[in-house]
Design a protein that fits this description.
By secondary structure, the chain is of the alpha+beta class. The chain is 36% helix and 27% strand. Strands 1, 2, 3, 4, 5 and 6 form a 6-stranded antiparallel β-sheet that branches. The chain is elongated and about 50 Å long.
Protein backbone atom coordinates (compact mmCIF):
# COMPACT_ATOMS: atom_id res chain seq x y z
CA UNK A 1 0.00 0.00 0.00
CA UNK A 2 2.89 2.36 0.70
CA UNK A 3 4.18 1.72 -2.82
CA UNK A 4 0.77 2.62 -4.24
CA UNK A 5 0.76 5.87 -2.25
CA UNK A 6 4.28 6.74 -3.48
CA UNK A 7 3.25 5.98 -7.06
CA UNK A 8 0.21 8.25 -6.68
CA UNK A 9 2.32 11.03 -5.17
CA UNK A 10 4.92 10.72 -7.93
CA UNK A 11 2.27 10.92 -10.62
CA UNK A 12 0.81 14.05 -9.00
CA UNK A 13 4.12 15.87 -9.24
CA UNK A 14 4.92 14.50 -12.69
CA UNK A 15 1.61 15.86 -14.00
CA UNK A 16 1.74 19.14 -12.11
CA UNK A 17 1.19 22.14 -14.24
CA UNK A 18 2.82 25.47 -13.71
CA UNK A 19 0.58 28.51 -13.55
CA UNK A 20 1.91 31.85 -14.62
CA UNK A 21 1.03 35.48 -14.26
CA UNK A 22 1.73 37.06 -17.59
CA UNK A 23 1.50 40.82 -17.10
CA UNK A 24 -1.38 40.91 -14.66
CA UNK A 25 -2.23 39.58 -11.23
CA UNK A 26 -4.71 36.92 -12.23
CA UNK A 27 -4.59 33.59 -14.02
CA UNK A 28 -7.03 31.63 -16.11
CA UNK A 29 -9.24 29.38 -14.02
CA UNK A 30 -7.78 25.89 -13.73
CA UNK A 31 -9.94 22.77 -13.50
CA UNK A 32 -8.28 19.94 -11.60
CA UNK A 33 -9.65 16.41 -12.02
CA UNK A 34 -9.83 14.28 -8.87
CA UNK A 35 -10.97 10.80 -9.92
CA UNK A 36 -13.56 8.92 -7.88
CA UNK A 37 -14.03 11.67 -5.34
CA UNK A 38 -17.43 12.99 -4.37
CA UNK A 39 -17.98 16.71 -4.03
CA UNK A 40 -18.49 16.23 -0.27
CA UNK A 41 -15.16 14.44 0.16
CA UNK A 42 -13.38 17.01 -1.99
CA UNK A 43 -14.94 19.83 0.04
CA UNK A 44 -13.69 18.18 3.26
CA UNK A 45 -10.14 17.86 1.89
CA UNK A 46 -10.05 21.45 0.67
CA UNK A 47 -11.58 22.80 3.88
CA UNK A 48 -8.96 20.88 5.88
CA UNK A 49 -6.28 22.52 3.73
CA UNK A 50 -7.63 25.97 4.62
CA UNK A 51 -7.89 25.13 8.32
CA UNK A 52 -4.31 23.87 8.50
CA UNK A 53 -2.76 26.48 6.18
CA UNK A 54 -3.82 29.63 8.03
CA UNK A 55 -3.35 30.60 11.68
CA UNK A 56 -6.75 32.30 11.77
CA UNK A 57 -8.82 30.46 9.14
CA UNK A 58 -12.06 32.17 10.16
CA UNK A 59 -10.44 35.52 9.35
CA UNK A 60 -9.66 34.52 5.74
CA UNK A 61 -12.73 32.48 4.80
CA UNK A 62 -15.18 34.55 2.76
CA UNK A 63 -17.38 31.76 1.37
CA UNK A 64 -17.72 28.30 2.89
CA UNK A 65 -20.35 26.15 1.19
CA UNK A 66 -20.22 22.56 -0.09
CA UNK A 67 -19.93 23.96 -3.64
CA UNK A 68 -17.37 26.70 -3.06
CA UNK A 69 -14.63 27.80 -0.71
CA UNK A 70 -13.25 31.30 -1.13
CA UNK A 71 -10.50 32.74 0.99
CA UNK A 72 -9.09 36.25 1.12
CA UNK A 73 -5.80 36.29 3.03
CA UNK A 74 -3.07 38.90 3.30
CA UNK A 75 0.38 37.56 2.38
CA UNK A 76 3.22 39.48 4.02
CA UNK A 77 5.75 38.58 1.31
CA UNK A 78 3.89 37.52 -1.83
CA UNK A 79 6.61 38.74 -4.16
CA UNK A 80 10.06 40.16 -3.75
CA UNK A 81 12.39 42.60 -5.46
CA UNK A 82 16.11 42.42 -4.79
CA UNK A 83 17.95 45.52 -6.00
CA UNK A 84 21.59 45.69 -4.97
CA UNK A 85 21.26 42.68 -2.65
CA UNK A 86 18.55 44.23 -0.47
CA UNK A 87 15.32 42.25 -0.55
CA UNK A 88 12.02 44.10 -0.52
CA UNK A 89 8.80 42.22 0.11
CA UNK A 90 5.53 43.20 -1.47
CA UNK A 91 2.46 42.41 0.59
CA UNK A 92 -0.58 41.18 -1.33
CA UNK A 93 -4.25 40.71 -0.55
CA UNK A 94 -5.59 38.03 -2.88
CA UNK A 95 -8.54 35.70 -3.33
CA UNK A 96 -8.42 31.98 -3.95
CA UNK A 97 -11.73 30.52 -5.09
CA UNK A 98 -12.27 26.76 -5.17
CA UNK A 99 -15.48 25.76 -6.97
CA UNK A 100 -16.26 22.13 -6.10
CA UNK A 101 -18.06 19.39 -8.02
CA UNK A 102 -17.89 15.60 -8.08
CA UNK A 103 -14.45 14.46 -9.29
CA UNK A 104 -13.08 17.99 -9.86
CA UNK A 105 -12.59 21.49 -8.57
CA UNK A 106 -11.84 24.80 -10.25
CA UNK A 107 -9.02 26.98 -8.93
CA UNK A 108 -9.16 30.77 -9.37
CA UNK A 109 -6.57 33.22 -8.10
CA UNK A 110 -6.77 37.01 -8.21
CA UNK A 111 -4.60 39.60 -6.49
CA UNK A 112 -6.69 42.50 -5.19
CA UNK A 113 -4.16 44.85 -3.57
CA UNK A 114 -0.40 45.15 -3.38
CA UNK A 115 1.44 47.10 -0.70
CA UNK A 116 5.06 47.83 -0.02
CA UNK A 117 6.54 45.85 2.87
CA UNK A 118 5.61 48.63 5.31
CA UNK A 119 1.95 48.38 4.15
CA UNK A 120 2.17 51.59 2.15
CA UNK A 121 -0.41 51.16 -0.60
CA UNK A 122 0.61 51.24 -4.21
CA UNK A 123 -1.82 53.67 -5.79
CA UNK A 124 -3.54 52.78 -9.03
CA UNK A 125 -3.76 49.33 -10.51
CA UNK A 126 -0.80 47.39 -9.02
CA UNK A 127 -0.29 45.33 -12.16
CA UNK A 128 -0.12 48.49 -14.26
CA UNK A 129 2.46 50.11 -12.00
CA UNK A 130 4.60 47.05 -11.45
CA UNK A 131 4.49 45.28 -14.80
CA UNK A 132 3.50 47.87 -17.41
CA UNK A 133 5.17 50.89 -18.93
CA UNK A 134 3.19 54.11 -19.32
CA UNK A 135 2.44 53.19 -22.95
CA UNK A 136 0.84 49.89 -21.81
CA UNK A 137 3.62 47.60 -23.02
CA UNK A 138 5.11 45.11 -20.54
CA UNK A 139 8.12 46.14 -18.52
CA UNK A 140 11.14 44.00 -19.31
CA UNK A 141 13.60 45.36 -16.78
CA UNK A 142 15.32 43.18 -14.20
CA UNK A 143 13.06 44.32 -11.33
CA UNK A 144 9.83 43.51 -13.17
CA UNK A 145 11.22 40.09 -14.11
CA UNK A 146 12.23 39.39 -10.50
CA UNK A 147 8.82 40.37 -9.18
CA UNK A 148 7.00 38.33 -11.83
CA UNK A 149 9.18 35.29 -11.07
CA UNK A 150 8.63 35.52 -7.30
CA UNK A 151 4.87 36.12 -7.74
CA UNK A 152 4.66 33.05 -9.98
CA UNK A 153 6.56 31.04 -7.38
CA UNK A 154 4.05 32.06 -4.69
CA UNK A 155 1.12 31.31 -6.99
CA UNK A 156 2.42 27.83 -7.80
CA UNK A 157 3.09 27.05 -4.15
CA UNK A 158 -0.61 27.64 -3.43
CA UNK A 159 -1.79 25.75 -6.49
CA UNK A 160 0.43 22.71 -5.82
CA UNK A 161 -0.39 22.64 -2.11
CA UNK A 162 -4.13 22.73 -2.78
CA UNK A 163 -3.83 20.11 -5.51
CA UNK A 164 -1.89 17.79 -3.21
CA UNK A 165 -4.54 18.21 -0.51
CA UNK A 166 -7.34 17.50 -2.99
CA UNK A 167 -5.67 14.38 -4.36
CA UNK A 168 -4.62 13.08 -0.95
CA UNK A 169 -6.53 9.91 -0.22
CA UNK A 170 -6.75 8.57 3.29
CA UNK A 171 -3.57 6.63 3.99
CA UNK A 172 -4.06 2.97 4.59
CA UNK A 173 -2.86 1.50 7.84
CA UNK A 174 -2.32 -2.03 6.47
CA UNK A 175 1.46 -1.83 6.88
CA UNK A 176 1.49 0.19 10.08
CA UNK A 177 2.31 -1.29 13.47
CA UNK A 178 -0.17 0.96 15.23
Amino acid sequence: MKKLFLLLLTSVFAQSQSLEFKQYFSVEKQVVEVDSTSADELYNRLKTWVLTSYNEPNEVIVVDTPNQIRIRPLDSCFMTYNPLGIEFCYVARYQITLDIRDNKYRFSFDVEDVFLDDYTPIYGNPSDLIWKKKDGSPKTNRGAKQMRTSANKSLNMFFDSIKTAALNTAASTDDDDW
